[in-house]
Fold Glycerol-3-phosphate dehydrogenase [NAD(P)+].
Amino acid sequence: MSISVLGAGAFGTALAITLSNARTDVTLWARDEVAVKTMQTTRMNAARLPKARFPKTLTVSSDLEAACQAETILLVIPTQKLAAFLHSHATLLDVKTLVACCKGVDLATGLGPVQTIASTIPSAQACILTGPSFAVDIAAGLPTALTLAGPKNCLEPLQEMLSTPALRLYWTTDTVGAELGGALKNVIAIASGAAIGAGFGESARAAVMTRGYAEIQRLAIALGAKPKTLAGLSGFGDLALTCTSARSRNFSFGFALGAKTEFDSGLTVEGAKTAEAVSNLAKKHGIDMPITNAVAAILAQRLTVSQAMEALIARPLKEE
Ligand SMILES: NC(=O)C1=CN([C@@H]2O[C@H](COP(=O)(O)OP(=O)(O)OC[C@H]3O[C@@H](n4cnc5c(N)ncnc54)[C@H](OP(=O)(O)O)[C@@H]3O)[C@@H](O)[C@H]2O)C=CC1
Ligand SMILES: O=C(CO)COP(=O)(O)O
């Protein structure tokens, strides 16, 4: 049962490294032939994950057809690019076990990664691997625990296959909860970063995280998620990591908005497009999501960070 990791960004590279430390049949695929040749020669991905060395057993390839011969395929490209990628390569990905390793809601369709796979390639077993983990930690072999969600029949073999001595996977059949927890926490991480960047303080950040978790629960449960999943690694766990670490790109992006400093526009910040997508979803389903709406309004330049915080704090008083 071989594994291919499609997408050699920071996270795809980290997953490929840790998996190929434990097994010999892992391929890391990237679309850029020049980048692949460089990785094959240097045995590292200096552009996306500097310092992490590739195990000898890891195959790096730009041949998508060959990579898609694997039974299990990890999709590690940004959420907003996933649907087009699946459409373009549907015949290669037919009938496979496809594990989304991205976090977000597609702005065009309002679908999370599992739903995007299911709607594009219905013959595939659509799963998601998500939870609190920085690529650098995974590549360094530091202890990490993640949630694997998907159809019951494929979960146990997949859990076995993707767990390593440092990477502990828990399974759930609640794909809705797992994909929404991972997507929505990024928006709250932007808000947390903005609160810290603007100088509102640690207490304000704790309020944003907690009330952010309340609105994540409101939307996700309305869409079918289980509260237990949201309280687990893919929800609360990842919210805690991302809202409190300057290593998070979503947090740092929010920090730059709050502090009015520059941010590298080439970095993947999933929460930015997801804020707008989730704000649209919340409106459609009649769910109150004031923090997500505030992030979407800041990004659309309808509000400043200070105006957003003033509006949030002045909302009508109510029961918790
Ligand atoms: N970094 C992390 O610590 C973690 C990231 N994640 C999630 O993983 C996902 C990917 O993030 P990450 O790896 O960090 O992002 P990066 O920005 O490091 O890399 C993105 C990768 O996706 C590739 N890519 C983009 N568009 C396409 C496309 N249309 N076809 C093929 N490949 C494409 C890029 O290729 P190219 O270089 O050619 O542009 C690049 O290799 C995100 O959803 C993120 O939330 C989850 C947990 C941890
Ligand atoms: O999802 C992550 C941690 O679990 C990575 O966070 P960022 O995408 O914000 O860097």
